[in-house]
Specification:
Layout (H helix, E strand, L loop, with lengths): L1 H26 L9 H12 L12 H25 L1
């Protein structure tokens, strides 16, 4: 039971940490499109749900690496949802 609670707190904390890191990394880049935490949150939700509007995107190498993490999370999320349906 304690492990479950630990993971329920760990994953949202890591997600917020990734968002803060994305804003920090992107703020140093020129031609940035992600300037604030709400924009980073919007980018991550759009990326995780695989919609990908293209209105916000990372321009720095670090931001693109964090974007890859969000893409990997989207594959895991879709796989998790499909496994619940079967």
């Amino acid at each position: 039971m304690k492990k479950r609670r630990f993971y329920l707190l760990l994953f949202p904390a890591l997600y917020v940490l990734l968002l803060l890191l994305l804003v920090q990394v992107e703020s140093a880049a020129s031609g940035l499109t992600i300037r604030s935490f709400p924009e980073a949150l919007w980018y991550s939700v759009v990326t995780i749900t695989t919609v990908g509007y293209g209105d916000l995107y990372p321009v720095s190498l670090g931001g693109r690496i964090i974007g890859l993490v969000f893409l990997a999370l989207s594959v895991g999320l879709i796989g998790l949802l499909v496994s619940f349906m079967l």
